[in-house]
Amino acid sequence: MITSGLLALVVAFLLLLLGDFLSTFFYHVPEHVFGKFHTLIHHGKNRNFFHYAVLTKNPLVLLDGILGALPYFVFTPWFWQISPIGTILGLALGEFHVVWRHVFVLEYPTPSLVQKICRFFFITTPEIHSQHHQNAMVAYGDIFTFFDRPARAWLKFLGSASSRTIR
Question: Is 96 exposed, middle or buried (0-12, 13-18, 19+ CB in 10 A)?
Answer without folding.
Answer: exposed
